[in-house]
Amino acid sequence: MKQAPEQNKGDLYGEESDGVPHYYGDTVRMLFIIAGIAILLTLPILKMEVPVSIPLSLLFVLVVDIAAGLTGPRHRSVMMANAAIALCGVVIFEYAAANLSELWTAFFWANQFLAVIFFIALYYSAKSLRWMLL
User: Fold this and answer.
1) Out of 26, 68, 127, 128, which could bridge 32 as a Cys pair, Cβ 3.0 to 4.6 Å?
2) For position 23, what pLDDT does the model report?
3) In a domain, 55, yes or no
């Protein structure tokens, strides 16, 4: 009786990441998904405080989600895009949090949370990208 091939523990997304050293795309993917969900959940509640239009916010969520879906251990250009998206996320959300006149509001915490998520995603994107470029 033939057994199905064993799935790699790191192969949750259809690509083998085993054997690819310094690849953190799975981590970046999960951070992007968490950030996208956080934006989608907080946007209806905090929409009056968001300084950009709702369609622009949703477009950013879609870009983050598509980048997460395209992430793979053999795609250098996607890893570069992930680093750029994470960098933009850090700048956008930390600027929004730091620019508030009223601190410690729900809008402040949402922006701080998203800035930290994108900061961590930037770190792991840069680690993966460094390996891919060397």
Assistant:
1) 68
2) 86
3) yes
